[in-house]
Amino acid sequence: MPRNVKLFLVLCVAFAMWRLYWNFSFAIAPSAHWQELLSQESVEGRQAMKHGAYMAALVQTAYYLLPAAIFAVFAGFWGRNWARWGFVAILLLMELVPLLFAIYALALRPEFYSVVHHPILDWLHSYRLDAAHWAVWIRIAIKLALAALVFSKNAEPWFHKHRSPTLPHGVAHA
To answer: Which pLDDT tens digit goes with each residue over 134-147?
Structure first.
């Protein structure tokens, strides 16, 4: 296994752990802002907000993180070329889907604005170049590094080797 593929797998694990933390950070280490929002709500409102936050975290994990992990395993351990393309597609979707939803909600369905106001503004303002949004820039840098590692010159032979079904797994055909 090439060095860049090994680095890719290590960075995938680190990225997955970091995304899991951020997906569930409201429950792991609630921020003062989150606690203030909850304190302003009724008991039913708090329960609805917590339920919504858990559902959003589970959806992000199920729709993005699990498929990315599956693609990463097939690309990293078995050298499947289609899997590395699928992995990069998932990384792109992780950035594009919130943008498309923000455009939809703000431009085509303005009545949603009061419902999705906070998440959309968080997303739209997350690309500012200031220290308060360092996590977004680290996330983007990690995604770019993952794509660069899996498509590097060092990794190319891993994805283009020809395997014979009669040879043991992982043995290249001479």
So the answer is: 777 788 899 999 99
